[in-house]
Amino acid sequence: MKLFFGTTKAQSTPKDAIISLRENISMLEKRETHLQSKIEQELAKARDFATRNKMAALAALKRKKMLETQVEKISGSRLMLESQVMTIEAANVNLETMKAMQTGAEAMKGIHKDLNVDKVDETMDEIREQMDLANEISDAISQPQLFGAELDEDELNAELEELEQEVLDKKLLDAEHAPMVLPNAPATSVGQQGQRQQQHPQQQQRQQAATVSDEDDELAELRESMGMAA
């Protein structure tokens, strides 16, 4: 069968194709350089024979023209091969990019295989429950407790107010019954005593008012020290 249909060629990879194309491009470049050199030679011959031998000069120009035609064809072929190389390289880059994207997609599938939105929500609910439990435990530990005794805050505050009122009443009572000590009056003559007895009644009233004002000031200071309003 191989005699009729020939051998089956292995499928070339992009890398092999690019290598083969670059080898052909290099060969064409060498061929083009060689032809350019021959064109320069034929041009020099035509210049040399231009005044001495017109037939030889025309033959040199014809050869130069044919060489230039070959150079144009080689340049076109080389341009086509270079275009194929760039196309294959771009396609190969796209292929490698697609493979990388497929690999990433498979990795993401593997990661999300056992993970979904319901499991995430369930985990977050468990975390919130544990955090709430931790806060309750912390509050319970930090709150002072008197083991074996239940205290009524309202009852304690009422008892404290009774004690404060009792202390205040006692101080007010002691202040009202406190004896007033008058300074020792110097000895006076009978004439001076008579003059004092003859003082104006308004002056005596001012002295009594001053005494009452001093007592009021003492009571106000006592109330202020006890934190009570006047």
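The above is record 1. Record 2 follows with the same two-line structure.
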Amino acid sequence: FEHRMRLYGLRHGAISIWRGDFCESADVQRVLPVADVLLVNNYAFDSALNQNLLQMFLDLKDGARIISLRPFVTPDYNINARNVYAPESILAVRRYPYWSNCVSWTDSGGEYFVQTVDRTRVRQFLARGNALA
């Protein structure tokens, strides 16, 4: 990390790098509630791991952003009585393109997703009395 930062001429603040299973890490659990941005390179993650991450995202504060290569919630996701309590319901997602030769892992273009934690839609849905009893 330090080598790459110097190579690119970039400055950074304090950083900690941990090794291990982030789903089981006490350090990760400790920082999630105060995180502003999470970068999740979930291109090759299976659905079980993405579901575990969704559960962990419940600890994020409103306004926190999750940047990922695969969406954790579909762009056309709508809250309804059956899914209002699902972790996906607290995420608002936007899709962005990246072009060829813009990333280190492929020469082709693609897309990435920015999910923002926003519990407002869930509160509004519940305030309208739409939840199942």
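Strands lie at 37-40, 65-68, 91-98, 110-117.
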